[in-house]
Amino acid sequence: MRNGEQKKNAIVTGASSGIGLAISEKLILLGYSVYALARNFSGTKYSNENFHRIKCDITETRTVEATVKKIASENEISVLVNNAGMGYFGPHEDLKLERLEQMVKTNLVAPILITKLLLKELKKNSGFLIFISSITALRSSPVGAAYSATKAGLTKFSESLFDEVRKTGVKVVTIHPDMTKSNFYNDLDFKEDNDPEYHIEPESIANILEMILNQKKGTVISEITIRPQKHRIEKKILRKKKDKIDS
User: Fold this and answer.
1) pLDDT of 126-145, one tens digit each?
2) Neighbouring residues of 148: CB distance < 8 A, sequence distance ≥ 6
3) What is the CATH number of the domain that holds 85?
């Protein structure tokens, strides 16, 4: 049965931490009920009656299809945020095949499939379809060629879909964040620099989402890039003084 109260509903992938969690919190403050998809919520301390935790591996096609269809059959979805992402970095020849496959499925295949499953619903509701891409989609990324390719593909998909569905009222938006303080870097050999001028906070991206949702009818911010004022990454090297790289 569909919701009788006409409450606004959103689906956010990768919503257990970082950007996805910040976006979920913002949507709830804006009056949405959020269906949060993630593989694991064990480290998620946030709790709210409108934050619905749904364990789902979005790289498993049949699982994500059943999950999304069930949510959409019970709720009118007006916002989809394709946020889930992962990255492996290094010389392309050194990356394991299973890691490359996992990255392509998570960053590109899953958002395309989930969008297909919800597009008719979003058309009916003149909803928002938001992709969290990456600044690497816009430039060359040595030792991150495959990652940047997945994000470039996501950006191009979003751009093309905007032109395909704009007459239906669906607002398609791509956000390109630069270095953001999150769990993304937990298993990598580098991370964002701790100095606030060298990284973005997830809450800043959530604030951009609020701005996107509050545009007057007929106006769409179709693409936006957010960057820290300065650029520096911190290498995770096990020695007394950690290396820092400026550019």
Assistant:
1) 999 999 999 999 999 899 99
2) 134, 136, 137, 139, 140, 141
3) 3.40.50.720
